[in-house]
Amino acid sequence: xxxxxxxxxxxxxxxxxxxxxxxxxxxxxxxxxxxxxxxxxxxxxxxxxxxxxxxxxxxxxxxxxxxxxxxxxxxxxxxxxxxxxxxxxxxxxxxxxxxxxxxxxxxxxxxxxxxxxxxxxxxxxxxxxxxxxxxxxxxxxxxxxxxxxxxxxxxxxxxxxxxxxxxxxxxxxxxxxxxxxxxxxxxxxxxxxxxxxxxxxxxxxxxxxxxxxxxxxxxxxxxxxxxxxxxxxxxxxxxxxxxxxxxxxxxxxxxxxxxxxxxxxxxxxxxxxxxxxxxxxxxxxxxxxxxxxxxxxxxxxxx
Length: 303
Ligand code: 13P
Ligand code: SF4
What we know:
This protein has 14 helices and 13 strands.
C-alpha cells in the first residue's frame, strides 16, 4: 500500500510540477518521496533553488512560511494544516518591538522556529546549525536572542565577545528532557557517545559528546567509528539512523522526545496536497517583505 502511494506521488510530482521538501524528522515513507531532505537551514537554502511552480513542505508551519518568504511567486503548501511548532508563537511582535525601542543598540536574533510576523520585527534569523557562525559575524555587541534560551545559551558559550539577553522560551520537547534521563541512558549504554540537539538544556549539552542540528547529529553518527550512540533529539532520528546504519546501534536519550506536530503529516496527506488539498500559505505582503530580510540576512551570513 505504501509503495503504491509513493509511486502515485512520484508520477504526479512530474505531471503537476511539484517539488517536495521534507524536514528530517519526517517519517521514512515521506523522506523517500521528497526531492530534498534536510535540517531547517538546508531546507531554507533548498527553497531558494526550487524550479517548480508548487512546493509541498513536509514539516511544520514556520518551515512552510519560510519557503513562501523565499519563493513568493510559487504555490506553497503545508503538508498538514495543524502542524505548528509551539515555540514559534511564544512571543508576540509587540513584545519584541517594545524591547527594541527600549534597547536601540540591540540586534534581535530570531531562531528560525518563529512565525513570519515575529521575524518581521527581528534583525536576522538563525538555525541550530548556523547560529554560532551568524551571531559571530554580527557587527553589534548586544544581542537579544529569541525564543529558545537553551539554543541561546549554547551560542553565548561559543561567542563570548557578545552580550546576550534571553527570554524564557524554548522547545517543550527537547527542553523537557531531564538531566536524570540523560544520565540513565548513559548508564544503560556505557561508552556510547551522547549526541544532542542544542534545544536541550545546557546541563544536558554539557554531558554530550557532540551537540548539533538534526542532520549534523546524523552525519556525526554515520562518520564516527563508534558502534553505538545515544540520540538526544526527536526519536524519528533514531529510526532513520537504524535504517541507514544497520550495523550500528542507536538508543533514544528519552522516550519523551516525540514531537506530535512533526508527526502529524502522513504519506496520504502528501498525496492529498498534490491532488489539490493541503493548506496553501499566504502572507501579508508587508510582513513578508520585512520577514524576508531576516532570512536573506541568515543565508548571506550563513554561507
Ligand atoms: P534543525 O535546525 O536541526 O532542523 O531543528 C529544527 C527543529 O525544529 C528541531 O526541533
Ligand atoms: Fe518545535 Fe520542538 Fe517540535 Fe522542533 S521538536 S518542531 S522545536 S516543538
